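Response to reviewer comment R2.3. The reviewers asked that we include at least one raw input/output pair. We reproduce the pair for Phosphate transporter here without editing.
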Amino acid sequence: MSTSSYCFSSSANPGGERRCSQLQCSYVSPHKNNVCSYFHDTYFSKREVKDSNSFLPLKSRKVPIKLSSLSLNSKFIIPCASLSSFADGESGDQQEQVKDAVPNEGKLDQEVKSEESPGMAQAFNISSRTASAISICIAIAALSLPFFMKSLGQGLSLKTKVLSYITLLFGLYMAWNIGANDVANAMGTSVGSGALSLRQAVLTAAVLEFSGALLMGKHVTNTMQNGILVANVFQEKQSLLFAGLLSSLGAAGTWLQIASYYGWPVSTTHCIVGSMVGFGLVYGGVGAVFWSSLARVTSSWVISPVVGAAVSFLVYKCIRRFVYSAPNPGQAAATAAPVAVFAGVTAISFVAFPLSKNPIVVLAQALTCGFAGAFLVSRAINNKLGHLLSKTKSAEGETEEDASQQKNIGFLSDIAGPTGTQLEIVYGVFGYMQVLSACFMSFAHGGNDVSNAIGPLVGALSILQGGAGGAELVIPMEVLAWGGFGIVAGLMMWGYRVIATIGKKITELTPTRGFAAEFAAASVVLFASKFGLPISATHTLVGAVMGVGFARGLNSVSAETVKGIVTSWVITIPVGAFLSIVYTWILTKLLPNLF
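Raw output as returned:
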């Protein structure tokens, strides 16, 4: 006999009895001598368990456990879903029991922490040689592709070609760090909840980020041209403006790389804005900066995470109240999913991707996209989960008693989550919805945030080729593709670091929690952009993840991780400004006569 639906974990239900809660997909296969091998993402220590009251889950390495050494009653081992479940987390008392029962827990945690910061090879489960080969190929492409671009074409002097080549590399460096840090906005929660593996998330984001940068990048307002620097101040100092734009790219890229190394999700917009403000203030004076625009950017430090947290808190509470407490949670989730997808896709299409200025055409386009999205999700749910839904319908009467006991529970009260087949259906449904929302967010992110690297890059190239610093810039398609390539390269090589922070280290995520956070963040960013409100996508998503954690209780949020993230937010603009000033000084000393 073998099964994939049994797992050992300790949690408490409302009645106070211990029950089993599936943590990840597991597989049990009996071998000789009554030995079972547990292939599971959450491993258990190598110690014998005498009874159910003393069994506690521990982070350790994979070990075989002899069935003869276990004396567990039938109430403890029950069939559970084959998807990730943290519907009822461990209570504080149980966590204290873990600490008291395991004297070597500190040592085990240190070993686990050392494995939580893997290199590229371990992150994608590939060999070190393959990871090195990928990195070398990316480096060769980065150094050679500019020679095939029109920006280094005929008619330019050798000096201008060299400076253009250096400028393209600075822009690529900034785009690389955007991919390493900011792409976690779209994919971090999907990886943390288990809806996507890290490899699937990176491949999906790579395609969508590049497509978004290539297809939508031209429609993004240039930050430098329209809101940060007063270019007319540098009308007679074009070489200084060129050095400042180059320094801003280098400074923002440097800080993003530092933040990515430590896994801090910082705002790339704030980073490039801080770099430009530092340069403009020191080398152009107070009049070189649009202070009203700067005030709007800094106000988003508070607005973004607070609004994101509030919306995700309410979304997650709605899921628990109206799905978890339904007589048939699986059926409730399957019914609500197409409706939610229709509403979300219609709104996103109407607001963000209008193909015409005629409102009737735009509405028809949005409704068509909404119906298509709802149909695809409904088909996917029926194909993958239809056999489970049919089982739950036959057992629906058995849940009426439990449902009646929860009718009078308040909206903000905690509710015991579903188990067994119901849990598998709920998480399967929300897994599809979360992946869909992640794809939309990834595409939009590629189209919007590529401007943080391409805007200053095109401005610098325009100055080199004889254009005015304050003129309207035409962004070549090849430069957008260059920025998209940089984002994808950064995502592949370092993106897993910040993905781990958003997806795993702030609070534990499941498909329902991940969907609540991602849906809230996408909604807030989308409609805030429509009404011109200063919202940071990074800050909004981090706040949304915190909001889901707060919905489960203050203890569910890692205070240490949140402290590190907030600190990185506060110092982003001043650090970017300082680095930009230093880099500009260095460039003006090394290249006193640029033209």
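The longest helix spans residues 359-394. The chain has 20 helices and five strands. Further pairs are available on request from the corresponding author.
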